[in-house]
Structure formats: C-alpha cells, structure tokens
Amino acid sequence: MVIPSALTAPGLSEVLAALGDRVAPVSMAFERTLPTPADCVDLFAEGGLVRGRTLSFAGPAATTVMLRLVAAAIEAGGWMAVIDVPTLGLDAASELGIALERVVAVDTQDPDVWADVVAAAADGFEVLVTRVPSEVRSSTLRRVIARLQQRGVVMMVVGDPGPLACDGVIDTGHQVWTGVGGGWGRLEQRVVEVTAAGRRLPGERRRKMEFPVPELQNAEVDNAERGGVAAEGAPSINQFSAAS
Amino acid sequence: MVTRMVTVWLPDWPVVAAGCNGNLPAAVVSANRVVARSTAAAAAGVMIGQRRRQAQRRCPEIELVDHDPARDAREFEPVVRAVAEVSPRLDVIEPGWVSLAARGPAKYFGGDVAVAEHLQHIVAEAGVVVRAGVGVADGRFSSSVAARLSVRHDSPVVVESQQSPSFCAPLPIGWLQTLGESDPEMIDLFTRLGLRRLGDLASLDPADVLGRFGHPGLHAHRLATGIDIRLPSTTDPAPERRLGHAPEDPVAQASAVVFVAKQLADELGQSLAATGRVCTRLVVELETEHGERSERSWYRSTGLNASAMVERVRWQLDAWVNLPRGSEHEITGGVSLIRLTPDEVCADVGSQLGLWGGQSEADRQAARTIARLASITSDEAVTVPVWNGGRLPADRYRWVSASNVDLDERARSVSGADLRSAPTGPWPGALPAPSPSTVFADPYPAEVLDDAGQLVWVSGRGVVSASPAQFRLMSGGEASGWRPGRTRHIAAWAGPWPIDERWWEPEGHQRLARFQMIIEDAAGGQRGYLIVAEHRRWWVAALYD
Lengths: 244, 545
Description:
Chain A is an alpha/beta fold. Chain A is 26% helix and 24% strand.
C-alpha cells in the first residue's frame, strides 16, 4: 500500500493505526484446524477439522472414514488416544497413514473414570477416539466438552453418542464395494458417500470418498482432479489364497 | 579473562538423596532407565542408561527407586547452605553439583588447595555420607572435570592457573557429553572424525569449527581449549529484566507460590525470547512476611526455559519448607515476595527441538499424559500396540502396557514404514489390504446358510458345501443356548482361504477358513465382513466398516 506523501504526520499515524487494525491477527475458527487430508476439507465449511469439536460417525463405513479424517493430524506429529474402543483395527489405521507409534489405548470400564480419562487425555493428545458410555451424566459431559474446547482437542465418537450432543455427525450412508462377486475376487475397493451435518456444520455437505485412498503419498498435493481411477498394482488373489 | 572456579560434585547424588545405603547395590530409574546408581551397583555392572530389566538381570538384588528431582533438591539443601558459608555467590547447576568463584575464598583461606580441603571437610560435616569431589581450575568446565576426577583420587584436584588447556587436552572427548555440554550425536561425530581427545578438538582453528559444526561445535571447542565462555558475572543485570511479585496477602501454600512463579517465568521467558536471548543463570529470591529470605542462583549451560525456571523455584521452595525445625533459616510465615532475576543471559543459539527424529514437544507432553492416565486408571489399562504378526486380524498386534515400553525409542524402532511393509514379509497367506477397521478379539458366533436354509460347511480340502446366501448373527451363550438373530442376504462373497496353523502343537493348532462377505443390512446398505469357519461353526472375526 502506498501512503500518500501529502498526508501530514497526524494523518499518517491514523492511517497506520487503521492498517494495524486490519492486519492484526484474529483467530478465526478456520485457523484453528487440525491438518486435514486435502480431499476431505470440503466436508467442512472451515476447511478442516476444527479443534475442540466432537464428531460422531454412523453408517457402514464409519470407522474407516473416521480414521481417514484424523490420519493427517497423526502423521503431522500429533498423538491419538483410543479410549474404550478395543476393537479398533490397527492394520486399517496404519494403511490409512496413521503412525501407530503415536497411538495409545486406554481401557476405563467405568463411566466416572471415563470422564476423568478423557479430561486428562485432552492435555497431551490431539485426537481422542472414544465410545461414550450410556450411563454418563449430562453435567459430566458438559464439563468434558468444555475441557476439550479449552485444550483444542478433537473427539471422535464411535458408535452411539448416547447423551452427548455432538457438534457434527458424519454419516456414511451408502457404500459400494468392488472386487468381490459370488465366490470370487476379494474386497478391493469401495466408494463411500459421506454426509457431514450437525449443529456446528451449517448445511449438509456431501462427497464421495474412495478407499483405499488413491495414491496416499500424493493425496495431500491434490486429490480433486484425480477421478475415480483405481490404484493399480494391488496384490493379486493368488498371493494369499495359498495358505501355509 | 577466565575466572577461577571451585566445583563441588557429589557422585550419584540421586541415589544418596533417596536414602539408599551406598554399600548396597541401588539405582534410581526414570522412564524405565537407570539415571544414577550406587558404587556397589556399578561394580555389579549396572550402567547409566540401562533399562530397568537389564539392571535387574546384571544385579538381581538391586534396589530400584523412582527418580524424584524435588527430593534430590530437598536433600541437597543442607549441603548448599554449608557451602554458602564459604561464599554466598554460588551456582547450583543441579542437585549434587555446585560451583562458585574461587578468588575470594582462596584469598581468605590462603590458597586454592586450602579452599578445596575446607569445602571437602564441611560437605562431609553436613551429614553427607558420600565422598565429595572438589576441583579448582580456570573456568566452570575444567573445574567440573577436576571435581569428578577428584572423586576417583579421593583428594581435591587443583589445576594451576593457566594450566586448564594442558589439563583438558589428554582427556577423552566424551567429557563434553558427561557434563551435558554437547549432545551424544555431536560427540559421536567428533569421534568418527578422529577427534578422540579434547586436545584434538582444541588444536583446530575456531573459524573452521564454527563453519563445519555451527554454534554447538564452537561451544564445544571453547570448552575444550579451557576457555569458559560464560564468565560468572558479578555485575548486576539491567533492572528492567528483573521480575518480581509481592502478593498483597502472604501466600502460605507452596502450590500458590509456584503458580505465581510460573506466571513470572512465562513473562520472563517471553521477554528474553523476544530479543533472542536465553537465561543461563537465574537467581530466585523468596522472602516471607517475617523477613526470612532464601536466595539461590541456578545455572544451566544450555539455558533455562520457563518450565525449567518454575522447577528450580519449586526445588528451592521445597528445600526451604523442609528444613529441620528450629534451624537458623527456618520458614515461619507466608511468602510475601517472589523475584526472578536473570543473572546471566546469552544469545539463544542452540538447542532447537528436533525437526524429525528425536523427541518433539508433543511427544514429551504425550509421555507426561500417559503417566497421568496410568495413575487415574492402572498401569495395565494404558497400552500401546506392538507388532505381533499373524494371519488373522486379531493376532496381528498385541497391546502392551505403556509403562513397560520406552516411548522415546519406540518412535524409531516401530516406524510406520516397517509396519506397512510387514504383511508382505514373514506372513504369507495373510489377507492383503484393505484391512478390517473393526477387529473382535472374541469373535461373534454366526451362521451362514445356503439358499435352502442349510448350514454351509467347508471340507478339509477347502471346498464349500454350497454357495453362501444367507447370514445371521447368534445371540445368547453356551449355557442358555444360542438364538439366531434376523437373517440377512449375502450380496457377494469370496473365499474360502484356509489356514492350517501350528499343527505341530496340540494346544495352538487351528484349522479354519476365512471368507469376505458383503452382507446387506436392513436399509439395503452394504457392509463388509470377515467371517471365519471352524469345525462347522461360523464366527464374525472383523468388520470392514
């Protein structure tokens, strides 16, 4: 910006003050986002997973989509706590790009302990994956949520969120598998229709997601232009049908 | 000009502070690694840096104590007070390690040797059972080395003025690492380049060292030549950097004092960082409403960040509060003044957190949180995955207690690349990617039927009796009997992929066949299942959800 030389000294300071206001850092919601895979950002109006939010997942591809959304944050150095989800498939997590050395599981058993554990885990982990116990009181839940928002931690709820009112619901309503038929092939690929909606996700955003993610290594560069072309070179069925 | 320094060093201080008998094998462990050990344990082959298990293997009768820096500082307080009688301007580098300028005391006591002997005498009188090492030399580094050597000789080591370079020259270069001045990678590099002694490094041109190794290298070079770069200054620092807080009501709780100190330390750290500086020597002053004072100066060559400053305040406060009753400096009232003074400030040139490899701040925070989670639940409840290998999804990882795993080393040994390539490695016959995202350790019983409603089974040769068409989950139990759930349509299936594992072992033998199935749910959606047939029974092993 060119400052007119005719301005007197007091005028100049006013211009500078106005400029200062304009360039002052303002923390908007979209600036407080976790690293999000490039092909998932358009699910969120803010352009990414906003810190401090809770999201629940439903439908036949819930866990996979959840792992896909958090993978970039874990890859970037964040830690993930898996609280009361002993069934999480680690191979799938690893295939989606989650660094397993930064995954820690906690087993709580008790709804009161669950709240303490979630609140404590918010101090050191960027992503929490959990199942909400149905007996937990809503007053306790409010405290937990306040804690998560204060620490900027994203909580992913697997299964029924129960008494918890999540900020967003990611619904994986419809998926189409390919590669398998009546007694031949194997589960190879699927296209999942993902819908994001909820209290803090204005409007309903849909997109199709493909698994396995086409060329995971380059996914961050640009995934929008790469159409529905399947990743080549998947191992053939013969490699594993001959069991030892 | 290099200042002459006296250093007092008490070997294996954490072990002594823990109250262990020096004649019995004992070690202090932190994060599963030995950080200090008694002489008896050292004789049995226990080394610093060993894992807990290794130490126990070398020496089964060893007594292991958890590391507690606050305890070390608290127990050290009598020694500091005794040394402070000789000279009030002393720097506590860490519990068990004090250095002070030698000039004044040497004049008073009549020579360096006299000061050293006097110090050794008063430290022994302070009720400490260990041998104290006292060294006098030019500069903090040389005198620290001298103090450590003095423990071996059992008498004070005095290096004559101007003799520090020739004293240092024949010493192994590893001393820089031992005294925490250089990181292990740097020492390793020096050794591989043939610089095995401090003298080898000192003989290089400082400009070349700076060009090749940057500031950490230059720092090492200066120490090796016997020049201590940070003169222990006696001039007052600029007053605007001094930060203090006088609470309106005296604070009686230690935690509240530490809280105030944290705010001051954050502010101080920020104001120093804004000018690219770091505090290497911090003076902490505490004063009570009754006028008792505690003043201590803390030194760390790599600089004290805000959390390190707070830790020093806590140590100091803890030691003060725990003084024996009736002693001269006993605290009797609430704290009415807390002041932090950066006594020695230098340009912040090093100690950047690792960009890759090494430990990041997030890793450290996670490690602290893991310890906290284990205290809320139990050690067994907080677990981390370890690659196990296997042909069924549930076998592929084991969960082991996080307290038994070195999380720092884990980041290097269990890298994601190794894990991702693992399925093609030693487990032929494992299912290829994509892997199921929900895995049941205890599979759910189910039934797979053909078009006519007959149970499908797999023959010993891996042939299916009929094409699977319908699926139903079973509920109930062995005792109450199994009840079939709602029948669902199988849209597509693949398999069977048989496994015949551990046939040589009667207990572990399993023979089963795996299927992948797409089953339609009530709404017509498709769900992927991994189903296992074993002895005419069917199980849901995992879901591709």
